[in-house]
């Protein structure tokens, strides 16, 4: 398959941009799959109402079909077609955080969406992305678009069009290049089907931000207990992992250097995932600083770029720093723990 690629300026008022949007929208309306940027990561979109289109998403990603997808919309009014009801908490959260990196879980209205998009569940995950390219493309299709991250399943999520190209060129019909994304980690997923909202996946909107708006918010126990089955799209299987094994180190930078030295004596090529504050401290074959520890949002925005960096090296093993679990740090640690396969070591 030939993958068509368009470069679109984020200022969508240019005539050539509209022409490119129309080409990409036509592919989506013809049940092909197209990758496009959002404010979190690049998504791989397909018509959520069509079985064939949704199957193409799973096929391109190599993603198990029992893993539900997030539905992307451009207008709140689109919910009426496939959502059974909109609870009060959801209305409040939509008013405050849409468009934005927040996915809400609703009870599903049968007979509209492909059952492949929802993995046969009675609920559906929906969000409205806060990105001009994504919103314009969604408006031009007029469709609910199922869109997981646009990467091969298990690999770090893509935050640039080049990441998508590396993973999916020749496997999808099109790629809309709207430049690098901003937030860097995926949307927060909140289940609004019960009396109290439940965070199923931490992301760009923090628990603290949510509680300011709706009061009590619960965190899904499955996020802390690996033995429990997660309920959120994109959380069921191993994700984000670089090619070399990643170990998170509970301790100081001196502790990390101790492990680095041990592995170098064994003749291994060693990488370290750190921040700008500590980058110059480490003596390793590859050291990558993903943002500033004092500004965790910068760590979130460059985390997947960092994980992908190590795939361009001959590193045999990677040691990573850990981060506070509050605010956006909750999302960072969630992704790092999954990337590391929950391997945490200490001296």
UniProtKB/TrEMBL annotation:
Binding-site residues, ATP: 63, 67, 123, 149, 157, 201, 240
Keywords: ATP-binding, Cytoplasm, Nucleotide-binding, Nucleotidyltransferase, Transferase, tRNA processing
Domain of life per record: Bacteria
Subcellular location: Cytoplasm
Keyword set includes RNA-binding: no
Keyword tRNA processing among record annotations: yes
A single GO BP: tRNA processing
Pfam family, one: Sua5_yciO_yrdC
GO cellular component: cytoplasm
E.C. designation(s): 2.7.7.87
YrdC-like domain mapped to chain residues: 18-205
Class of the enzyme per the UniProt entry, highest EC level: transferase
Protein name from the UniProt record: Threonylcarbamoyl-AMP synthase
Organism (species): Sporosarcina globispora
